[in-house]
């Protein structure tokens, strides 16, 4: 595992989040939080998520669509901002 991936996973764990339960947004800029991380390109992010860029599955397609919707170039650097899933109380 890449060293920078270990740092991200440690930060998520410190924040009390598990990777599978964390929500995220993708932006061209950092939100300047402890859980905002820079990725070089989409392939690096998919590698972090343990998804293959060439593998056509639902999760990787969803992530690729985020880039399209946000107008972000997936071949340039971007930031992934993690946050806890919000649960609405009734």
Structure description:
The protein is α+β, with helices and mostly antiparallel strands and 90 residues long. Strands 1-3-2 form a 3-stranded antiparallel sheet. 9% of the residues are buried. The mean pLDDT is 88. The protein has one domain (3-83). The protein has helices spanning 3-14, 42-48, 58-70, and strands spanning 23-27, 36-39, 78-83. Helix content is 36%, strand content 17%.
In brief:
The chain is α+β, with helices and mostly antiparallel strands and 90 residues long. Helix content is 36%, strand content 17%. The termini are far apart.
Estimate the helix proportion, in percent.
Answer: 25-40%
The termini sit apart by 41 Å
SSE order? HEEHHE
Number of helices: 3
Rounded mean pLDDT is 88
Largest sheet: 3 strands, antiparallel
